[in-house]
């Protein structure tokens, strides 16, 4: 098992892919470590929000992703 | 009746609106809004990325909020994602109710929230490649009217 | 394009709206409102009397006012007069423009003025005969929002 | 020639007809005199407005209807 990471909006461009699979379990520090530095910097920024299994996290640094879960990295929406 | 759909393919707003009207023969008023990709000089296509796992529940939650604020017989929210050409429909919102003000305000509210508080990310393909679109200040101003 | 009509016979709002949308392929947004005769327990038919010599020019003047207040690509106002059964369409207003807020506000404004400041007199046929309908306080309140 | 008088809304019920033809020319006093008393009372009321040839009169008592013209008696509208 692993943790799926979904990159939305321009984060997909920065990561070079729409999704990645990382070994789980994964916390906030582990996620940032596993990402390329420029992408990790962006994700750390206050404009990027984080969801776990489709639920927005109130405090993204509290991330605890178990094996088989899905993390979404959400930059500001640009509207429908 | 609530009809909320996140659509991956092109759709006909006229047809959907016709079916909605037929489904609510007793409503005194039906208001609607159709938003399309605006033809702009240098824009070849528009892409709206969704994260369906959150985008669709977000649209459902918006519909529930609208229904809590206004007394409606029916509410329809259809929204595209994916790649669209200029002129293609992006969104259709329609509300049916006994009273005129309810349906017009409900559509107005739903559109303001879809435009600035829903899980969509937008980019345009121009002559020199793809460009991500940042949120518009005007959209946030529109949204704050309801606070 | 302005399309203002005072209609003596039944019409299809869906068809008229479809033609309006087709006539404005470049508009980013189209808002509309359809008002129908509400089915009410004791109302057999509704009659709207017009004085076409003033009613139609009044609708044209309203359209000109709307066009002066908002930047529109197109505006449609179709309004019935005569005898109508429950469920029959009475009015269709539609606006097409580049911007969402313009079309929604234009439709809202036009409807408020049609409902309370246009030359129509309304009566209902109930079990005990015809009854003239007095202006509604709510309609005047709606209108005063724009003053 | 004559002056056409159009009764709108419930004034048509009070007059018993949607239109009448009166000898012209006709001024405000002449119009009231030519109408049945109960209708004249209603028309005198401030809620009833008067149009001449499709133009609303600012002051209905200033009515001067020439032969061949059309007077409309307009009670409060009830909306579309």
TrEMBL record, chains A, D:
It comes from the Bacteria. This is Thiamine biosynthesis protein ThiS.
From TrEMBL, chains B, C:
It catalyses: 2 [molybdopterin-synthase sulfur-carrier protein]-C-terminal-Gly-aminoethanethioate + cyclic pyranopterin phosphate + H2O = molybdopterin + 2 [molybdopterin-synthase sulfur-carrier protein]-C-terminal Gly-Gly + 2 H(+). It comes from the Bacteria. GO terms for molecular function: molybdopterin synthase activity. Keywords: Molybdenum cofactor biosynthesis. Pathway: Cofactor biosynthesis; molybdopterin biosynthesis. It is an enzyme of class 2 (transferase). Its EC number is 2.8.1.12. GO terms for biological process: Mo-molybdopterin cofactor biosynthetic process. Belongs to the MoaE family. Converts molybdopterin precursor Z into molybdopterin. This requires the incorporation of two sulfur atoms into precursor Z to generate a dithiolene group. The sulfur is provided by MoaD. Heterotetramer of 2 MoaD subunits and 2 MoaE subunits. Also stable as homodimer. The enzyme changes between these two forms during catalysis. This is Molybdopterin synthase catalytic subunit.
């Amino acid at each position: 098992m692993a943790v799926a990471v979904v990159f939305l909006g321009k984060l997909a461009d920065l990561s070079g892919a729409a999704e990645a699979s990382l070994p789980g379990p994964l916390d906030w520090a582990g996620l940032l470590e596993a990402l390329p530095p420029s992408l990790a910097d962006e994700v750390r920024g206050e404009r990027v929000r984080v969801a776990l299994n489709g639920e927005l996290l109130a405090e993204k640094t509290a991330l605890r992703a178990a094996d088989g879960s899905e993390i979404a990295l959400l930059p500001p929406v640009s509207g429908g | 009746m609530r009809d909320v759909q996140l659509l991956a393919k092109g759709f006909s707003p006229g047809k959907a609106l016709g079916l909605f009207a037929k489904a609510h023969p007793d409503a005194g008023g039906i208001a609607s809004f159709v938003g399309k990709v605006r033809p702009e000089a240098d824009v070849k296509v528009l892409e709206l990325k969704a994260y369906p796992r959150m985008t669709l529940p977000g649209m459902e939650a918006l519909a529930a909020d609208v229904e809590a604020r206004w007394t409606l017989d029916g509410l329809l929210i259809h929204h595209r994602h994916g790649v669209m050409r200029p002129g293609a429909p992006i969104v259709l919102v329609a509300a049916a109710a006994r009273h005129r003000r309810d349906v017009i305000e409900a559509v107005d509210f739903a559109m303001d929230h879809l435009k600035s508080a829903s899980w969509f990310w937008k980019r345009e393909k121009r002559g020199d490649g793809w460009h991500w679109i940042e949120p518009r200040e005007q959209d946030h101003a529109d949204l704050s009217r309801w606070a």
